[in-house]
Amino acid sequence: MSYVGPDSDGFFDGDGPRRPRRFSGGPLTVALAALVPTALAGWLIWQVVGGPGENEPAKTLPAASQSSTAGADTTSPSPSKSDDGKKGDASPSAAPSKSKPPASSSKSAGSGPLKGKVVVIDPGHNPGNFQHAAEINRLVDIGTNRKECDTTGTSTNAGYTEAQFTLDVSRRLRTLLQQQGATVELTQNGDRSWGPCVDERARIGNKAHADAVISVHADGSAAGNRGFHVILPASVNSGSADTTAIAGPSRDLGERVAGNFLRATGSAPSNYIGGGTGLDVRKDLGGLNLSTQPKVFIECGNMRDAKDAALLTSGAWRQKAAQGMSDGIVSFLHG
Ligand SMILES: [Zn+2]
Fold first, then answer.
1. Could you point out which of 30, 41, 121, 252 has its C-alpha 20 to 30 Å from the C-alpha of 197?
2. Region annotation Disordered: residue ranges (predicted)?
3. In the predicted structure, residue 34 carries a pLDDT above the cut 80
4. Domain region containing 116
């Protein structure tokens, strides 16, 4: 498809070729893979709400420095083929009252439980990448090797692009986190014509000394493949990539995001990646390899599946998705 980036295998969302289907081992994970999704759902929720015997260590994150914003808000480009909002509002009655992206500053100096915390949100891809093939195809150093600067991302069959989706969800998430008092920075906010490159996306989180970073995506897999998954950084120490210090905290962040995303949206963990856990571990993503801060990706659903697309194109659902991510991040930062 013309939307698929050059480093994509043609199905997935352009974040790079998949390594062989394998998720991190360990007895717990292996055992979980044998469970039905509903049981996993319970497990994930139990994880994030802190069931008895929770072994997550209390966090004592230092106060992070304040960071500057990524730029002024601008209106997202609106390609004519968007099917946004025309279908998929399966649960309008459950929709939060506020469903429009904010037009406020991306910086917060507010009070609240996340006061002093810095969160960087990375809206995957860029709506303008389609018009800048030369720029985004340039190879950049991702620590372990070289890879395309960025990719176009995928879209629904009706033309709602992943880049539109990620920007919308990211803005909603920013608002929710700001309401908790966090300082929030976006890596791009529809305020640049393409990119940034994946290495720059990582550096933005690093320079902000972010307490948590989340890269928002939606997948482009085969129809019938459904559900969300959170991508965790493998422990990599090669070249300029060293994720050994963030792999553990990132897993904690990712598990909390996955559990809260499940609870907020009602979506099931992916039925095609992660063995039903909703978690995947990768070592081929520059945005993770180059991060020095706890960071995860989330693939919110499969844009090429009609049922998932109906959700992804619903503003009410996107608000739930943002709420789930926010709850996960809040949980992680509170410990
Ligand atoms: Zn993507």
1. 252
2. 55-129
3. no
4. 7-50+76-334
